[in-house]
Write a structure and sequence with these properties.
Largest sheet: 5 strands, antiparallel
Order of helices and strands: HEEEEEEEEE
CATH class: Mainly Beta
């Protein structure tokens, strides 16, 4: 386990934290930080600079996206949806999906392994 990951886990363990502040933006980049990685699933924070994207892909598990800041276009099985801060969306497992940040965008991704 990396020192950064260990530090993030320790920061959140049995202590409330301002979640959006736990990951920082980087110019022209996508930053991710793993909060928790267990057999049952993972929790990962992401910060996308404006215009950054994840190309279409599939994951074998359902993925819950909680939008913390900004807005993005999420495409699920060809349907485009705009998500904004304060919203949640579930991307079903084994269904193609992609993401493009309209502006600086932060999300918490929870992967639930079946």
């Amino acid at each position: 386990m990396t020192a950064d990951r260990q530090g993030l886990l320790q920061d959140c363990l049995a202590q409330p934290q301002p979640i959006a502040d736990l990951v920082d933006y980087a110019d022209n980049s996508i930053v991710s930080k793993t909060v928790l990685d267990k057999t049952a699933g993972t929790i990962t924070l992401f910060a996308f600079d404006a215009g950054q994207r994840l190309s279409e892909h599939t994951a074998p598990y359902d993925a819950v996206v909680q939008v913390l800041h900004g807005s993005a276009l999420i495409t699920i099985d060809g349907t485009e949806l705009t998500v904004c801060a304060g919203q949640i969306i579930i991307m079903p497992g084994n269904i193609p999906h992609a993401l493009m940040a309209h502006e600086k965008f932060k999300m918490l991704l929870t992967m639930v392994r079946a």
